[in-house]
Write a structure and sequence with these properties.
With 163 residues, this protein is α/β, with parallel strands linked by helices. It contains eight helices and five strands, in the order βαβαααβαβααβα. Strands 2-3-1-4-5 form a five-stranded parallel β-sheet. It binds shikimate-3-phosphate. The site of shikimate-3-phosphate has 10 residues, from loops. The site of shikimate-3-phosphate (S3P) has 10 residues, from loops. One of its GO terms (cellular component) is cytosol. Monomer. Its cofactor is Mg(2+).
Length: 163
């Protein structure tokens, strides 16, 4: 079995669906943000604050070059698909799923969030623009799973039936 990679915008439910999927398939679950945080001993917020977004993007690319080769569920940071190089690395690393969700549903989940640096001081419209600009990159080479109104278990089941 190949790695199962989950992509999608912040708040799309990658972490919860990934955990459900790992449980159902008895596979380990790795999250690119957590791997970066552990490796550098800093939170994503601190990395953005002290090193800036560009260096964080570099850390993402470097990490993708050495993902575990065992079959695993890998959940990813919402911006990882922005670099063409990363999309290629993701495709090489496993089967890529895009967890899609309408913007308004995502926004409801994100509006109280204080942990994601890209949301700081952004209006709803600015976040919508970011969301819309990324959709083509999520769709590139992936299997799209519509998560709207689904529980993490239901999303995991949809992924399993598309494998
Ligand atoms: C980001 C999404 C975050 C995290 C970082 C940047 C993005 O991950 O990687 O804050 O650019 O969309 P989640 O999608 O898990 O929130």
């Amino acid at each position: 079995m190949k790695n199962i990679i989950l992509t999608g915008f912040m708040g799309a439910g990658k972490t919860t669906a990934g955990a459900a999927l790992g449980g159902k398939l008895q596979l380990p679950v790795y999250d690119t943000d957590h791997l970066i945080e552990n490796e550098h001993g800093l939170t994503i917020r601190e990395i953005f604050q002290s090193h800036g977004e560009q260096l964080f993007r570099e850390m993402e690319t470097q990490l993708l070059g050495r993902l575990p080769s065992e079959p695993a569920v890998i959940t990813t940071g919402g911006g990882i698909v922005m670099r063409a190089e990363n999309r290629e690395l993701l495709k090489r690393a496993g089967t890529v799923f895009f967890l899609s969700c309408p913007f308004d549903e995502i926004y409801e989940r994100l509006k109280e969030d204080s942990t994601r640096p890209l949301l700081y001081e952004k209006t709803k419209e600015e976040i919508r623009q970011l969301y819309e600009s990324r959709i083509p990159f999520y769709r590139d080479g992936s299997i799209e799973i519509d998560t709207s109104g689904k529980t993490p278990e239901e999303v995991a089941d949809c992924i399993i039936s598309s494998l």
